Sequence to fold (472 residues):
Amino acid sequence: MASPLIGLSAATLVDRLKAEEITPLDLLDALEERIAEVDPEVNALPTMCFDRAREHARRLMEKPVDARGRLAGLPLPIKDLTEVEGVRTTWGSPIYKDHIPSRSDILVQNLEAEGGIVYAKSATPEFGAGANTFNEVFGATRNPWNTSRSAAGSSGGAAVSLATGMAWLAHGSDLGGSLRNPASFCGIVGMRPSPGRVAADPGNIADNILSVEGPMARTVEDVALLLDAMTGENPADPISLPRDGTLYRNAARTPTRLKKVAFSADLGITPVDPEVADICRRAASRFRELGVEVEDAQPDLTEAHEAFQTLRALGFAAAHAQKLKDFPDRLKPETVWNVEKGLALTTGQVLKAEAQRAEIIRRAVAFFGDYDLLMTPATIVSPYPVEQRYVAECAGTTFETYIDWLAIAYAITLTTAPALSLPCGFTSEGLPVGLQIVAMPRGEAKLLSGAAQLERVLALETVNPIDPRSGN
Fold:
């Protein structure tokens, strides 16, 4: 029997921690019990570090309550692409299956300084490549709504841990939908902030604005709570933004007046499963109940495929070319393909992609001059069989590459706009569908306010975790 704490929201627990009604140790005990009960069925948290977590919790509890940070001792898992000092970090790769970092990523340092307690690493595909969470180190992560289905990726372990009550908050990262896709497939909320909003180790491209770190949770307010703890600049991350005084949890609680929002079933660039498109359209139309005008519209994103494919390949080459040279037989085919594509790029191709991205950003900013928010499906299909490496076809269209099916998410990545996936309904099979909601670049406060308003209208009760459900 799960502890009653498992079903509470992160915001409620933080308030209770600050009131000293419960302790971080109480929460760790509840999590350890819940993980033992359900994780064998879904494989979301392959590495645990409860001894480290309890030691950190005891040190935190020695401080005055008002010195325990914004999270006040709330536990959370870190995605297995991000280093945590003394905790195995594999990047989902056999090359690093025994890697123990000697330092934590900037992101982890900041979260722990804000009272976050790291107790586990969440599953990811190898180097985050591909939107299905499986790897040769730990195997496949399964969707709790139907364990025969994919949890998507690459933050699949984080999404599954939230949906099943093995976490109240979780860290994820997003390049082409890696937060948004698993949030959609697992019926939770995942948010991609604007580049620079969350500081992290920059990797081999110091000014990378494609990949960002972001918060995941079961409700919009809980996502906002974690974003508050994640934000802030660090001189080691040259694009990181200073805190500007905005409290995102307050933004999620405060209904900002919206005048006009847009919906697009396909952004004009991708096929979409008709059932998914219909569920999302009906959810978006419910903004009308709040007195908001809803129109069909989207910015021009026609160059998104070419620009993203080029820029993503460039990033993979920068990050993994040496690994391909040193370990050619130990990388999965999708990673090899992306690295080789990046190494083969010409200067002309890179310059063209940068120009396309600049134009896409200009168009997006102009679009949000007319609309408060843009909504689309977060994914173009519902959860597919876990054995399927990726989506190869949708609505009669066959895709050329393993990432083409992610266009509805990666096109938004190119705009630099913040976006989240909000649970918005279920298919005829009872599988979750997420609505992607997008705001003006650096418009996280309006995004969270708008999403929270729609969340209340939809009333899907996503704060309640589920037990894994078998399927075939």
Remarks:
- The chain is about 35% helix and 15% strand.
- The CA atoms of residues 94 and 136 lie 7 Å apart.
- The first strand starts at residue 47 and ends at 48.
